[in-house]
Design brief:
The structure is a homotetramer of 168-residue chains. The first copy, chain A, is of the alpha/beta class and 168 residues long. Helices cover 38% and strands 10% of the residues of chain A. Chain A contains six helices and five strands; from the N terminus they run E-H-E-H-E-H-E-H-H-E-H. In chain A, strands 1-2-3-4-5 form a five-stranded parallel beta sheet, covered by helices on one side. In chain A, helix 2 links the parallel strand 2 and strand 3. In chain A, helix 1 packs across helix 2 and helix 5 packs parallel to helix 6. The two termini of chain A are 16 Å apart. Chains in contact: A-B, A-C, A-D, B-C, B-D, C-D. The interface between A and B is large, with 39 and 39 residues.
Chain lengths: 168, 168, 168, 168
């Protein structure tokens, strides 16, 4: 992966795959570390330490929803963890509203909320033809909705004193 | 309470106190119905039905955090329930970031996030002397912070196309 | 209720209905206090204190399942709370496998497990015609299964050094 | 590991490490698959499928506690999953009361409960000198307690019509 990608993502189910974390820590690529669905704040930061301890300082944390009893969405997006992380760590923290909600129609609301809560960025799933997506089609935005959402986030960012750049 | 108050609040621990709900349904005051800390979306709306069925149409729902394994804050604020409620109900939905976070320093971030997620209002705890509060002092804002937060929320509301009024 | 019943049950949804708890504390009947579905051990014992503080020493605690992400049964029966209660309280602790599982076919297994974990008793739902039950029919035992289960529990009780009496 | 061990254990944090599961599926050793701390019943059985699909039929499931809001023990032991698994799968299911409770003094009660719920076996941690254990010392039984507990489990097994063998 390291030779071809711009960034290494460690998925939620691998947040405590320690050999993988250590290997990513020996890379020079930034590491995007998703929170495990049952990981406490301390568990998550300790997983980041496995990467940092190997000498790679470029870790980005990403909240993507936790398991709770609540079933109205795929996972429960724990936005309160954003200011909690910022109180104890210097690492940037992103939010993934696509996996958390599992519903395309709710992604915009939660992306705006993430930014307003102080998140350093959001990760959004987009697909030109969601019905044909190999997975997670119901949560993928259409390209035109992505464009309008980025405009909304830019307007919001101006108010919460934060810039918005996009990457793909 | 009905003779002296402007609104009846049903606390989270009484969300399924059916005799209380029915009595509030026979009042002409608005009813502020907090979500129980382990209530699913459907449980909550069915509790609202007890009030509505008695003839009182003025029900306001209020998300105040649920119980999860996560311990970085007092409760886990489930902001994803805001668009979920709006997809199935006409009732207004508020958010209480004070009880959810339990930390004064995180109330502003979550109040902004609530508004950005589309909430119709927020409930904020404020105290002129939090150390002397009879309960919940650690989550109470000081009056001057309340004033600055309302200014932030008004600026944010202009962007998310929503007015902000204050009540006490 | 006090004039006609042998025991007062406080249901899970009323575990923190403080005026009800205080009134039960002024009764001479035993109080059967079910654990709220999101109540921690301390919350539960503090609710018992409301009864005890009014002078009624006859409180029986009853675990009936908590809310978790797990959906294979109606609630997650937290049998580990039985030895946890016994380490800090003198109050007897019962278990209700009927509400917890929600499935008639699993009630026997969890009743046996409760007894083996050290519970002082189990509460079992039974109905002569479960299809016609006004609620909770799927979890009700048929009378003949109740009889065979009591025999199983008696045999088990002899091994775990504990008697089994039945009440209706 | 395969060359030196009698059995391959997949820990809870690796329950969804799919490359590891597939490799274990190509082994001839039995695979002891612990339930992830936020895994639903279906997630768990699907992880077992990764092993089975590679041709290794010797999978043993092991419940070891899930994450819930409840803090009286390290994890919430979900014994109700035992009859739930047995209703849909032919695989044997074990229970690990040591990790679930985290307290040596509660291991016996939950081991008995597991057996009474119908578990096919229990996994018990034991240490001759728990204070010096490199990890998890507070949940390790002393050797003499292990011996007495096995006697208790044998007596119990006779009643629930199930044999008890020990392995180390």
């Amino acid at each position: 992966v390291e030779e071809h990608a711009d960034i290494i993502q460690i998925g939620a189910r691998n947040m405590q795959n320690y050999s993988l974390l250590r290997r990513a820590g020996r890379s020079r690529l930034p590491v995007f570390l998703k929170r495990g669905m049952s990981a406490g704040l301390e568990d998550w930061l300790l997983s980041a330490e496995y990467v940092l301890a190997e000498g790679n300082p470029h870790v980005i944390l990403c909240e993507r929803g936790i398991r709770s009893f609540s079933t109205h969405s795929r996972f429960t997006l724990d936005l309160g963890v954003v200011p909690a992380v910022q109180g104890v760590s210097h690492l940037p923290v992103f939010v993934d509203p696509s996996h958390a909600t599992g519903h395309r129609d709710r992604v915009g609301a939660m992306a705006r909320a993430a930014l307003a809560a102080g998140a350093d960025g959001v990760m959004l799933e987009v697909h030109a033809n969601p019905e044909r997506a190999r997975s997670d089609g119901t949560q993928a935005l259409l390209p035109e909705r992505l464009a309008s959402l980025v405009r909304e986030l830019r307007a919001l960012a101006a108010v919460v004193d934060r810039g918005v750049e996009t990457a793909r």
